[in-house]
Amino acid sequence: MILTFGNVCTYVNYIWQFTQMSYISDEWQVARRRKGVSSLKPPGDSDTENQLEKAPEETLMCVCYGLGSFSSCVAARYQLAMLLLLLDARQILLRDCYVYDPAFSFAEKNVLRELGLTVLTENEEGKRLATKPTLFYLMHCGKALYNNLLWKNWSIQGLSQVLIIGNSFNGIKERTIERELKRDYSYISKAVDLCEERLLPCPSHQIDVFGDTAVITFPSESLNRLTQSFWTEPPEPQYLDCSDLEITLRESSPSETLLTGDS
């Protein structure tokens, strides 16, 4: 997949204007009614399809974690704009794009719903099983979120359904002490040798927004060459010794607290 960011700025302006609106204009209402397909294409953006890879035969679904507060953060608006471009280029139904971030305000959740996206109400901590081909859009998320996602899909069948646009695993490996990576983020450590990464080109002035971003896939030939024992009963990550955990954990219910003995 080859992506460029030439049209992102236009989308950013649209998102910002839309976020500030107290009502939804006819243009946005029409976009939402078009069978849930992203059609939020600003004027002069007719070449977007030529810049992004065409949609595959089987429609993808999309999950976006960790987008951030786009009403107050410029980088988050750029990343949301890129997400809308991807949905448009891949012809992913808007309602089939699931978004979650504990940082979302009530107003931001409403904006995302008005755009046609599905806002998740539960903190999944990245532990979502891909039951069909799924694009996970995880821009500059913490290592634990990637690690949890890999754990939940740790099988030949599971990883073959996963496509990630997010931080380069090789980049994570280079920036993390080896013993800590293997101890705290063992699934990322193992995935480095299983995945195929294609770094996305990024203009120098957008390094803080899109730097170190890669398209990550798991080729079947890499997965199938491993023995069955490699995949057997993968333990759920615990992060007991992790001092810099970059994830918001979901709150335990009273019944869960009693079962685990936590106080």
TrEMBL record:
Q: Under which name does UniProt file this protein?
A: SRR1 domain containing
- Recorded source organism is Nothobranchius furzeri
Q: Which domain of life is it from?
A: Eukaryota
Q: Which InterPro entries match?
A: SRR1-like, SRR1L
Q: Which PANTHER family match?
A: SRR1-LIKE PROTEIN
Q: Which residues form the SRR1-like domain?
A: 52-216
Query: Which family does the UniProt entry place this protein in?
Result: Belongs to the SRR1 family.
- Kindly list the GO CC terms recorded for this protein: cytoplasm; nucleus
